[in-house]
Specification:
globular, 27% helix, alpha/beta, Amdntrnsf_FN0238
Amino acid sequence: MKQTTNAIVMIRPVAFRMNEQTAVNNYYQKVLDGLLPSTVNAKAQQEFDTFVEKLRAVGVDVTVIEDSLETDTPDSIFPNNWVSFHENGDVALYPMFAENRRHERREDILDTLEDKGFKIANIMDYTSAEEDGIFLEGTGSLLLDRANGKAYCALSPRADEELFIEFCEDFDYAPVIFEAYQTVDGERKLIYHTNVMMCLGETFAVICADCIDDKKERKMVLENLKADKKEVILITEAQVNNFAGNMLEVRGTNDKKYIVMSASAHQSLTAKQIAQLENHAEILSSSLDTIEACGGGSARCMMAEVFLPKN
């Protein structure tokens, strides 16, 4: 199984704003005072378009889908939370914590991919769990080490342990389960998505081990990464707050590898960390300040990787 892909789906926002329904447990979101909603959306669109241009310039196959004004979906820019695409032709649809995020799931996006020649064999639909108040938000909640058959999950109100284990059984992954925390107003609170504090590349892993308060769990996670011969690059909680954990490795022209992140993530890294990352792939960064502030997500959240086979 491949760990990285050349093909991604991205959703261009039309009504982007801070989502009040997700702010209850996403402590990275901020209100940008004095900015009209139209200004916030325009800034987000500008950041989105520049980001897509940079990805396409290095040969990443980006399928851009326009969001619709018919649904109130302020977070549609983060598609990796509702869908994942797999090498065997499976597509997984996930249950979402915020009610207004459930409208982001659109069948026409799957049709668009099929029109591009991707083959969808089977849809694994976990969304009925929403009725029981159980959530698992895609590759935000679960980090897939596709090559080594492991899935990492930091449990939270948006990542249910039983459903995660069910996913692992369905997709043949060994579950690696832990809890990750951040300090909010002096209190330790669960981090809402695993991919904020951790990134898995082919030959490296970026992780904020300090977020895993339980020493046994921390040791277990690091041992799993090292057992799979990944260079572990440690980041701090301050760097997590700058979205340095929210990276994704993708492939461009001639299968060249790139580590994609936001400008704020890139700027937060030390010279040593940058050198460590550049041993594995070239860094590609883009300014996502408005998207990060209002959305509480960053570069990795904006890219849904497509591993589907092609006709």
